[in-house]
Amino acid sequence: MSGTSMATPHIAGVAALIKQYNPSWTPSMIASAISTTASTYDNLGEPIMAHGFDLYSLYASAPFGFGAGLVDPSRALHPGLVFSAGYEDYINFLCSLPNIDSAIVKTATGGVCGQLFENPSDLNLPSITITSLTGSQIVHRTVMNVANKAETYLSAVLPPKGVTVDIKPSWFRISPQGTQHLHIMFNVTQALDDFTFGEIVLTGSLNHVVKMPLSIFPISTT
Fold it and tell me: What range(s) does the Peptidase S8/S53 domain occupy (predicted)?
């Protein structure tokens, strides 16, 4: 009923394929590669949002329904950049949530709160969601070059409605296995009563294209 019955084995199979090709990759690196190389267009070149396949089509054709898009296994083997997050990052994410008792986190996970994020949105995922953006907020991300050559990337933004997005640096050159920190500033220009969507696209000089979905709920300009 949820539509995941076939999505789950397909994604598991793609993940196994990527793991076989890149044995040293962690689960978060594999998930990042699948997400950032997905397409929001179908195999006929039509936007996913234009389609509905069954009773839940209204949900499936919305951004929270199709997520990063349709998986492309071939491109996921060579994503160029990945967003990596480990066990301690997830513990610190939980500890950074509002009104969370660190003792409860330890009881539930066995993990101890370490260096907290400035905001839970700083968990290094290949997407950014801000559930209540007031005024402005900076979100941090770190990418790693998993290709075997150095590459120069140029940043582009399709901003969500009611929000401006500024990414620094706007371009960067990254060596193999090197990392690059990104500072992404969101600023509300118009308060809305629901989520609004966009994306950041990092285009590499060696033809890698890395897409990061944005889901923002701008509630106030101040």
Answer: 1-43
